[in-house]
TrEMBL record, chain A:
Signal peptide: none annotated. The chain crosses the membrane at residues 39-57, 94-118, 124-144, 197-218, 225-244. CDD domains: ATP-synt_Fo_a_6 (cd00310). This is ATP synthase subunit a. InterPro entries: ATP_synth_F0_asu, ATP_synth_F0_asu_AS, ATP_synth_F0_asu_bact/mt, F0_ATP_A_sf. Belongs to the ATPase A chain family. NCBIfam families: ATP_synt_6_or_A, PRK05815.2-4. Pfam families: ATP-synt_A. Gene3D superfamilies: ATP synthase, F0 complex, subunit A. HAMAP family: ATP_synth_a_bact (MF_01393). Keywords: ATP synthesis, Cell membrane, CF(0), Hydrogen ion transport, Ion transport, Membrane, Transmembrane, Transmembrane helix, Transport. It comes from Paracoccus fontiphilus. It is a multi-pass membrane protein. It comes from the Bacteria. The gene is atpB.
From TrEMBL, chain B:
It holds the Pfam family ATP-synt_C. It is a multi-pass membrane protein. The gene is atpE. NCBIfam families: PRK07558.1. Its main location: membrane. This is ATP synthase subunit c. InterPro entries: ATP_synth_F0_csu (IPR000454), ATP_synth_F0_csu_sf (IPR038662), ATPase_proteolipid_c-like_dom (IPR002379), F/V-ATP_Csub_sf (IPR035921).
UniProtKB/TrEMBL annotation, chain C:
Signal peptide: none annotated. It holds the Pfam family ATP-synt_B. NCBIfam families: PRK13454.1 (NF009988). The lineage of its organism: Bacteria, Pseudomonadati, Pseudomonadota, Alphaproteobacteria, Rhodobacterales. Its main location: membrane. It comes from Paracoccus fontiphilus. F-type ATPases have 2 components, F(1) - the catalytic core - and F(0) - the membrane proton channel. F(1) has five subunits: alpha(3), beta(3), gamma(1), delta(1), epsilon(1). F(0) has three main subunits: a(1), b(2) and c(10-14). The alpha and beta chains form an alternating ring which encloses part of the gamma chain. F(1) is attached to F(0) by a central stalk formed by the gamma and epsilon chains, while a peripheral stalk is formed by the delta and b chains. Keywords: ATP synthesis, Cell membrane, CF(0), Hydrogen ion transport, Ion transport, Membrane, Transmembrane, Transmembrane helix, Transport. PANTHER family: ATP SYNTHASE SUBUNIT B, ATP SYNTHASE SUBUNIT B', CHLOROPLASTIC. Component of the F(0) channel, it forms part of the peripheral stalk, linking F(1) to F(0). The b'-subunit is a diverged and duplicated form of b found in plants and photosynthetic bacteria. This is ATP synthase subunit b. It comes from the Bacteria.
């Protein structure tokens, strides 16, 4: 093919998906479920980063906060306000859980942007488990709190009786699409951003377009930093929205 | 330029799904633009609606990401 | 984007065909297909994700959030306390201002009193001095008048003496005998009218 020939001639080689390969850390063998892999490593780094920010940062318990403590307090305040505003005061019971999700995703996204890093949130297996944890949790909370009335979420009483079954079908479908859209949105954003950066970096091998490629990589990188944060924010805010549906299904 | 007709169809399909992402971009731009227009008319109400803005952008973007997923599946899984 | 993915697919395909070419590219491992769809690594990822999430949840729920929450509520308390203290200080400042104003007014009144007292004292001294001076002046005037009267009296006597002598001599010259008593009487009668 033409592109292939071109690539061969100029020595261009794109491997934008190589960065997502799950590799064992200590051996070249099979990846078993217990094998320490780069996934393990980076999840460990995420946990350490959260520990450093939230625990080490607030070590001083200062009334006038240090820089690290301010950031920790800002994250706390942001998630706290998000839950209180969207899910209501009774949603604050689940604050630690939502905070855990937020810190995990935001650090996974941001640390994944480091050169040579592995982005755990770019894997559908990971984001799928995160999204399922949210949806299953929220559904269980909804049934425990409201019993059968939780099904009012699908049976919209404000609509005319004739269209209610149709709406119910649509609502049920949209309810089951939620985990899919949560996980695919996060993973898709991460895959796309990292692959684009990698492709631009590949173009830097051609001297003629190298400056353009470097500028493009810098621009995409800045954009990806923004996207990394926004996706964590969106995941958290949608969790709050779903939690609100579970706590107050009638609205 | 050798190859089989199935591969050709696969690549054409992948190219077509790229349109889906383009339309998602239109949608996200629409959300952001309308938010800005509303926010400039009533700046005092804008601060409270940023969460809604992000939710709207997330929904608009999610559908574009779905087409991206379809592209990936066509490329690698079919 | 998608066309670039095609590139990836091609290079991946290349790799499966000949390992040598990928070694020439300096790659040790190349993705065959999408790594995200590689089911064999799912178990591994999910296992480690669950481990990480449990650890993270423990850290966040048991250590981080209580601590940050405590710090924030402490700060809220400190701010409220400081505001109340500030209110108290304001009140105190107001009191101090009132006290200052009062002290100032008192000092002014005191100063006015002192000035008045001084003025009265000075007035008294002045009055005394004036009275003293008046008395002295009166005494001197009296002395002077006395002396003038004496001088006038002596002058009168002298004039009477002279008149008597002159009268006696005139009487003698006209050949009369000088009755000293009659002369004196006459001269005194005449002189009383003249001198008064």
């Amino acid at each position: 093919m033409a592109t292939e020939a071109h690539g061969e001639a100029t020595g261009l080689s794109f491997h934008p998906m190589d960065q997502f390969i799950v590799r064992p850390l200590f051996s070249d063998g099979e990846v078993h479920w217990y094998t320490p892999t780069n996934v393990t490593l980076w999840m460990f780094v995420i946990v350490l980063a959260t520990l450093a920010l939230l625990v080490m940062g607030s070590r001083g318990r200062a009334i006038v906060p240090t820089r690290g403590q301010s950031v920790a307090e800002m994250a706390y305040g942001m998630v706290h306000k998000m839950i209180a505003d969207i899910a209501g005061k009774d949603g604050l019971k689940y604050f630690p859980y939502i905070m855990t999700l937020f810190m995990f995703i935001v650090f996974a996204n941001l640390l994944g942007l480091l050169p040579m890093a592995f982005t755990v949130t770019s894997h559908i297996a990971v984001t799928g488990v995160l999204a399922l944890a949210v949806i299953v949790g929220v559904t269980v909370i909804g049934f425990v709190k409201n019993g059968v009335h939780f099904l009012d979420l699908f049976w919209i009483r404000s609509a005319p009786l004739a269209v209610r079954p149709i709406l119910a079908v649509i609502e049920v479908i949209s309810y089951f699409v939620r985990p899919l859209s949560l996980s695919i949105r996060l993973a898709g954003n991460m895959i796309a951003g990292h692959a684009v950066i990698k492709v631009f970096a590949g173009f830097a091998a051609i001297a003629a377009v190298a400056p353009v490629a470097v500028v493009a990589v810098v621009g995409m990188y800045a954009f990806e930093v923004l996207v990394a944060f926004v996706q964590a924010y969106v995941f958290t805010i949608l969790t709050c929205v779903y939690l609100k549906d579970a706590l107050h299904p009638s609205h | 330029m050798e190859g089989n007709i199935g591969e050709l169809g696969q690549y054409i399909g992948v190219g077509l799904t790229a349109f889906g992402m383009g339309f998602a971009a239109l949608g996200v731009g629409n959300v952001a633009g309308n938010f800005l227009a509303g926010a400039l008319r009533n700046p005092s109400a804008a601060a409270g609606q940023t969460a809604t803005l992000f939710i709207g952008m997330a929904f608009a973007e999610a559908l574009g990401i779905f087409s991206f997923l379809v592209a990936l599946l066509l490329m690698f899984a079919v | 984007m998608i066309s670039l993915l095609q590139e990836a697919a091609h290079t991946a395909a290349e790799h499966t065909e000949s390992v040598a070419s990928s070694v020439a590219h300096g790659e040790t491992e190349t993705a065959t297909g999408l790594p995200q769809l590689d089911m064999t690594s799912f178990g591994n990822q999910i296992f480690w994700l669950v481990v990480a999430l449990v650890v993270l949840y423990w850290i966040v729920a048991k250590v981080a959030l209580p601590r940050i929450g405590a710090v924030l509520s402490d700060r809220q308390g400190a701010i409220t306390g400081d505001l109340m203290a500030a209110e108290e200080f304001k009140l105190k400042a107001r009191e101090a201002e009132a006290a200052y104003d009062k002290a100032l007014a008192d000092a002014r009144a005191e100063a006015g009193k002192i000035v008045a007292a001084n003025r009265a004292e000075i007035q008294k001294e002045l009055d005394a001095a004036i009275a003293h001076a008046d008395a002295e002046i009166a005494a001197r005037v009296a002395g002077s008048e006395q002396r003038i009267r004496e001088i006038r009296d002596s002058a009168d006597n002298d004039a009477c003496e002279v008149a008597r002598d002159v009268t006696a001599e005139l009487v003698r010259a006209f050949g009369g005998t000088v009755d000293q008593a009659a002369v004196d009487q006459a001269v005194d009668n005449r002189m009383r009218g003249a001198l008064q």
